[in-house]
Amino acid sequence: MLETVTERASIGLAERTSRRSFLGRMGQGLVALVGGSMVAVALRPERAEAYHICGHTYTTGSCPHPYSPQSRVDKYGYPLHPVYGYPVDDRGRIYKSHTQTRHKMCQQLVPIRYPYTGNPTQGGGWNRCCGGRIRRIYDCCSYSDTRINGDGAVTGYCHHGRKVFCIGYRDLNTRC
User: Fold this and answer.
1) How far apart are CA 124 and CA 168, in angstroms?
2) Each residue's pLDDT tens digit, 21-35
3) Which residues are CB-contacts of 69 (< 8 A; sequence separation ≥ 6)?
4) Sign of CA dihedral 92, 98, 101, 105
């Protein structure tokens, strides 16, 4: 009888948890033990808003995009569909006519939605291999001391006193 109760409890525990969640909790506990609770809170996975973009592992959130949080753009900074790569307007519809509104995410849409950012520019970035192709992730740089997700801004790949406000990405046709 005791054996079946223990067995059922073990099976129930295994069904409710995964190895990844267990290892995550263990890692957070180790960091809390070594670095204090403030560091452990800062490293919680749900705090990282940009984990959805392959190749990006820090906490800066995505720039405004019709398919947020996916912030895929073309080489000029205009929004693209995150999966199929076709041009979309500000509402996420296929861009077929110049009568549709379509803003550059960093330089035009950020100052409209966040007027305190000043005059943002598309800054530098880095490349990662995602889905077999090179992905270019770039910083949208502004004079704001706060990032889009409310945290303190960091310099990143920004120049001339600007700091990272949000990020975007574009997929290149180069295989990796």
Assistant:
1) 11
2) 555 555 555 545 555
3) 49, 50, 52, 53, 61, 62
4) positive
Closest by CA position to 82, among listed 103, 101, 93, 67:
67
With a pLDDT cut of 70, the percent of the chain lying above it is: 69
Question: Residue 40 has which token pair?
Answer: 């452990």
Six-digit token string for 31: 């960091």
